[in-house]
Specification:
The chain is α/β, with parallel strands linked by helices. It has seven helices and eight strands, in the order βββαββαβαααβαβα. β4 and β5 form a beta hairpin. The two termini are 25 Å apart. The mean pLDDT is 86.
Length: 198
């Protein structure tokens, strides 16, 4: 697979396979194309050459909703400019699975509350996100990803801007969730120390 932007940055050719149920870390410096790779893997970008296969199917032949049921992305751009409550943020993970104007169903609420419990923040549903620490905010965003219910989770620098204690905590939580929920996890990072713990 290969991809290039009009301004000249080129990624590839790449031949990558991620084992189902595994935890894979890709390490590279900033600006090396890690985020571009994840956007190719979640279908937001299309390769100019080659194909991306998801669970044996060509990603280009799947609808956005089909992709959303299979792949969840924890992106770098996780700024929340509006004073959302924690529960509202976690429920955003259900939006790709529904119609554009659907209301939150009892099932959506159940799944979202369960995801928040899984990341250790069950009591934070009604709190404002800006009241939380950096590590807690990252766990809320991870709960949003889990709420999507996808078996493949793509993580783009999920510990950026966290101190060492919170970086280790997020990594341990990811390992535990991968085992318990039988997820396949692909983590991209520039942090060699973090990747060595995968």
């Amino acid at each position: 697979m290969a991809f290039s932007y009009p301004h000249g940055f080129r990624l590839g050719p790449i031949d990558l396979s991620v084992a189902r149920g595994g935890f894979t870390a890709l390490v590279g410096p900033n600006g090396s194309g890690k985020t571009t790779l994840l956007r190719l893997l979640d279908g937001a970008l299309r390769p100019e050459r080659g194909t991306v296969r998801l669970l044996g199917r060509d990603l280009a032949g799947l609808t956005r909703r089909e992709v959303a049921r299979a792949v969840a992305l924890f992106g770098q751009d996780t700024a929340l400019g509006f004073p959302y409550r924690v529960g509202e943020v976690v429920l955003m993970g259900r939006h790709p699975l529904r119609g554009d104007f659907a209301f939150d169903s009892p099932e959506d609420l159940r799944v979202a509350r369960e995801a928040l419990e899984r990341v250790g923040l069950g009591g934070a549903w009604d709190r404002f996100v800006f009241e939380l620490s950096g590590g807690e905010r990252q766990r809320v965003l991870l709960a949003r990803v889990l709420t999507q219910g996808a078996p493949l989770v793509l993580l783009d620098e999920p510990t950026a801007h966290l101190d060492l204690k919170h970086r280790v905590g997020i990594l341990e939580l990811l390992q535990e969730l991968r085992r318990r929920l039988e997820l396949t996890v692909l983590l991209v990072t520039h942090d060699v120390n973090l990747a060595s713990g995968v």
